[in-house]
Specification:
Layout lengths: L2 H9 L3 H6 L23 H17 L3 E2 L2 H16 L9 E5 L6 E4 L3 E5 H6 L3 H16 L2 H9 L4 H14 L3 H9 L3 H28 L6 H13 L8 H5 L4 H11 L11 H12 L4 H13 L6 H14 L3 H14 L4 H14 L2 H14 L4 H13 L3 H12 L6 H13 L3 H14 L3 H14 L4 H25 L2
Helix pairs in contact: 1-3, 4-6, 6-10, 6-11, 7-10, 8-9, 11-13, 14-16, 15-16, 16-17, 16-18, 17-18, 18-19, 18-20, 19-20, 20-21, 20-22, 21-22, 22-23, 23-24, 24-25
Length: 486
């Protein structure tokens, strides 16, 4: 993925972070049980800070997606799995990459990314849960700290070369092979041995999480086996997950052996899983291709979920701007799915995209009565108010929401749009500064505060607030530069 090349430049200045990234990209297969979690040399806070550094690069990547419905679904699924993990109190962040490659990965500090390709390729929710449980296993077992402890005696140049090779493997196995040639063989072998152990332990922990959380414990093995079978004759076409998490028949057999003595348990997919997959599928290809796919699947009854296919059809019709037909199909969808914020948001979106902002506002208001905390509905309602010429009402909505969601970057972006519509440039730039800060872009946040100062239309207290915030962010930027230069 392109994120690889964004990250290498910065992370070469943070060799610790580079070493830690080896683990989630898993280069091996068979390993012994490592037992209890090692305390390593890094605290959870240090791991979190490294993860935050990496996430700044992730959010700048064009493939990073902040779609609230898919992200909230991943968070709901992920937190259910975390609650069944050995470290249920740890905080995790789950995010989506709009990448068709089949992949998932973990960063230090509990950051777990899932590619859209993984969601679309999996044939059940338990399969997705199996992959995510494996990544959670890497985090809760402190594999990142272990890696640092194990490699502390290696030379800087060896670690840098190895880190580049492992990062490059996510994009191209040939690039990785060339990079590995430049690394010391003994260093590479030692790290590979250690990551093999990590992989087997993550398999074991992931299995326990999957079973305890109520999913089909065979989910991971079934998914991995199907991927391996589909690509075994075409190594160059192997999905990213197989290149970064290589599989063997023995490793899959280990997974299957854990399942064989358990009673078979059929676990139905949640409606959220089905609708999220349909949403991602409907966004692929041209609008006409998307429409044809879902329309034919419904006519020929070739679908796993009628509700998902009808959702996809409505989404495709919206892309085609065929709003009347979309409204008709939505009624059929509502006959199947009686209560869902995802379906309610889709209905409001029809009016929104059609430019009937009054009707859209009413639809969002009605839906928020049933789902007052739903981010998609809040964002949609605020945008419909803005487009409908009611920035003051939108601002009140956002301010109320910020009382309980002060870290939500999208709310600050919407707040800035409200101030722009109200011709308040000082407050607009101040809101944009907070938006950039919450994305991790300190320099951009500082620049917005400087622009706010230059407008000179804030009162004394507002100007003083911006001056104080500017000093605070500059101090943070200075500290970040100092840490990176170590």
């Amino acid at each position: 993925m392109r994120i690889v090349y964004h990250s290498i430049v910065k992370l070469l200045n943070l060799i610790i972070a580079l070493v830690l990234l080896v683990t989630p990209l898993a280069l091996g297969q068979r390993l012994p049980d490592l037992g209890d979690v090692s305390q390593g040399e890094m605290s959870p806070l240090q791991e979190r800070r490294i993860g935050e550094d990496i996430m700044r690069e992730v959010r700048a990547d064009p493939l990073y997606s902040d779609d609230p419905e898919v992200t909230d679904y991943l968070a709901s699924l992920g937190n259910r799995l975390v609650a069944a993990s050995p470290d249920a109190g740890r905080e995790f962040v789950f995010f989506l990459m709009a990448d068709p490659q089949v992949n998932a990965f973990a960063f230090p500090g509990g950051y777990i990314g899932v590619n859209s390709g993984l969601l679309l390729t999996a044939q059940s929710e338990s399969e997705v849960a199996g992959v995510m449980s494996h990544e959670i296993g890497h985090v809760v077992q402190r594999h990142f700290s272990r890696m640092l402890s194990a490699q502390k005696e290696f030379q800087l140049t060896s670690l840098a070369g190895l880190a580049v090779a492992v990062l490059a493997a996510r994009a191209s196995s040939q690039v990785a092979q060339a990079a590995l040639v430049g690394s010391q063989a003994s260093t590479v072998q030692s790290v590979l041995n250690f990551t093999r152990a990590n992989e087997q332990e993550a398999d074991r922990i992931g299995f326990q999480i999957l079973e305890k959380s109520g999913f089909d414990p065979d989910g991971a093995a079934a998914f991995f086996q199907r991927l391996l079978r589909a690509t075994r004759f075409y190594e160059s076409a192997a999905p990213s997950y197989l290149r970064t998490h290589p599989l063997t028949i023995d490793r899959i057999a280990d997974m299957q052996n854990r399942v064989k003595d358990l009673r078979y348990r059929q676990v139905p997919d949640s409606i959220e899983f089905q609708l999220v997959r349909a949403k991602l599928k409907a966004a692929q290809g041209t609008p006409q291709e998307s429409f044809v796919f879902f329309d034919e699947s419904l006519k020929e009854r070739k679908y796993l979920s009628e509700a998902a296919s009808r959702y996809g059809l409505v989404a495709a019709l919206i892309r085609l701007k065929r709003y009347a037909r979309a409204t008709q199909e939505l009624r059929l969808l509502r006959d199947i799915v009686r209560a869902s914020p995802i379906v309610d948001a889709l209905g409001a979106r029809i009016q929104h995209e059609a430019g009937d902002y009054g009707a859209a506002q009413q639809a969002y208001r009605d839906a928020l009565k049933n789902y007052p905390g739903n981010r998609t509905l809040v964002y949609g309602y605020a945008d419909a108010l803005l487009r409908g010429g009611k920035p003051d009402v939108a601002l009140e909505l956002i301010e109320n929401r910020l009382q309980s969601e002060a870290t939500d970057s999208r709310l600050y972006q919407l707040r800035a749009q409200c101030y722009a519509a109200l011709s308040k440039p000082f407050l607009q730039h101040r809101a944009l500064a907070e938006y950039q800060y919450r994305l991790g872009n300190l320099r951009a946040a500082i620049e917005q505060l400087l622009l706010a100062q230059a407008t000179r239309d804030g009162d004394f207290f507002q100007q003083s607030s911006v001056d104080a915030r500017l000093r605070q962010l500059r101090a943070m930027e200075k500290e970040t530069r100092r840490e990176n230069s170590r």
